[in-house]
Specification:
Length: about 800
Amino acid sequence: MHTAAYNIYARELLPRKHGYALWHPEHTKFGEVQIGDVGYLHDGAFYRMFNATQSEKQQRRVPDDYQPFVINDRLLHKTKDVIKASLASKSVTSYDISGSAGTSLQAVGAGLKFTCEREHGAFVIVKPSADRWQMHPNKTLAHYFRTRFDSWRHFAQDQLDLDISPHNIMFVYGTVKTDDWGLGAFLRYESGGAINFEASVGPIAQGTFNVTVTQKHGEIAEYRSKPAEASLSPPLSAMSDETADTLTDPSSSSLSLKRTQTGPRKDQCLFIHYYKMKKRLFFNRVIKGAAGPDELDPGSGSDGEDGMSVGSGSDDVMREYGTEKMFDPVDYILDYILDYVLEDGTQADAAIAGIDHLYTLFDEGIPEDIPAALQKLQPPILFVDDGVAALACAEWGEEFDEIEQPDYSEVIAREKQKAPDAGPPSPTEAGDGNRRMDVDRSISPGDANESPSKDSRSGTGHAYETVMVQDHTGGVACAAWSPDGRYIATGAEDYTVVLRDGTSGAFMHKFEGHDDTLWTIAFSPDGRRLGTGAHNGTALIWDVDARSVLVRLEGHQKTVNSIQFSPDGTKVATASVDGSVRIWDSTTGAQLHMFAEEKVVINAPFSPDGKWLATCGSNYEAKIWNVETGELYHTLKHHEGIVWAVDFDPESRRIITGSDDASSIIWSVESGEPLVILREHPSPVWSVAFSPDGKQVLSASNDMTIKLCNSFTGELLHTFNRNDALVNSAVFSPDGELLASGGGDNEVLVWSTRTGKALPPMQGHEDKINMLRFSPDSDRLVTASDDGTVRLWTLLGGDD
């Protein structure tokens, strides 16, 4: 968890879509932040090394063989008043001094009160209004970045003697600036209560910024204001004891700065927009606390005061900067791009990303756990220069429209030449010779007693038998049982679907017809047909007995996330990253309805009675549709983050949703109103489900726990702990007696829903478990993993 004020401030204001928030907006000795600056972040401030758009003569030092980057003036745009008076994170409520909520600080001499009732929060006050300067996407920048990047690295490390990782070097392409400002960050260690800021800003000519802070023990509120140009209050360590006591009083603290101004000059940089690059083979050095010989830390010297931690007693101390790694959300994108495997098995040599790519991808709001959200959505990448890849943001917006596309095929061709054997196997290569089947028996219930007690792994009397099969090459993404338990079907990265015997796990058939990674799979209610969806938007319906394609469902342009048959088997619903949900005739393939969400749709289940279809996705909403008419019945609005999961109760009267905002909500299908709001997790909820009898609901979160609650009262019944492993999936057994989950530790854990006790951990997978499903009779469990294997676990009974 980030605890440094500069990280809390930047992270909390990131979703406001103004860029990266600087805890130190004031300029350094080299002047204000400008478009074209090449530099780095340190303790909440941006430090320029040089400006890539200026000539060599205009600068003190530049890299060897320096060549300036020429920006077309048509790409530079100014937007006035992007922040009129104040800006706060969603967790902070602002009031004017009179008590009216949400009032902007417009009038000269007006004041605001900021209240934070959550763990973290941030705000900034500006005067006058802040303006944005930004360079629009430039098709030559990626090439310039790639060809000059090594030169910048050597300049930083060899000439400036900076101990800095190369991927922390950034190119600024946008700024948001004002003249006068005050800002603050909240950190709460205890629940209940609130932290309050009261701020008043006088006329610019008077140059006053006054802050009063009230808080209680266990809470920290830090704030800064524009440094005085003529005289500064001394640092806390140089103050008299009486003054210091006033600043650290547990009930209030005040700070008043006076400065002389000749008029507003918007040179204080509140936010920056920037690009970064990361190469696969670079050695990542650790950034040390020192900023380097050519720049001064804005918190040292005499050009501004440090951020102050206002405590609630003698145990509270002023926070020291330089002790926590800088939060930088662009790093998550760079790592995702470098980890991304192309269709032919190769990977990009380098990645380039900008902070606006996050806003383009997550246009409805930045998720709390960005890496997990990227893995969940799996956005594709594209090549923007020789060996350099970026997120294919054109799939969600227009970010890269100006990049020339014809070169991509040449780059991909070169990548294929590097790895000629990569790609999906031929039919002969994927034959019986590649299949593996191993059987393992675990018959010692006592093993569970040796597990850590904190996850309730006490013995239940169960044991299990496992069969491991490997008929795919590449990770196995999805799995499904036929309703009668006769078959298991799995889909994988090798573009194939494998049919197995549901009892023995023996190989029966390999379906070949897709030309991209399988993403979702489902049997029809009678078990005679199989629906599959792939990464390229293709969906197929197969005849299980005839071993052939019955219907090709064409229309989606991007990944099909979900495919499901209606309860009577006459219809099929598909949901896609392209923002559409489609209902098809399962026999003819005719499209019956299409719902255009214009956002990524993650799931679309039918209600058990077949009357309704629910959808959820990145627009913070879930919706209920009439299957017969295609009309929207209800929009379920209450969440403040991406809705990852949705499920109906057995009677089709209630529906549950799980969201990135860490909540789960049970709604009335008839009225569309919330019935129960569950806030059992501190982190995003990935999976939710009703128990088969509808009396309980589960919610699985990346807080490493699964919660079991009463679906009518919301009462917490059990907490199942994954022991420091992220929860990838969680399901009820059809009889409701068991709950199973797969985690980041590659283990399967199963608990009794009645007692809360755990079976012995099911171990064997060597990579992430993507999906697990119980058999219809609840005595077997199938798991699919990125290690390329499928495991069939048979529960041998118990006495719980």
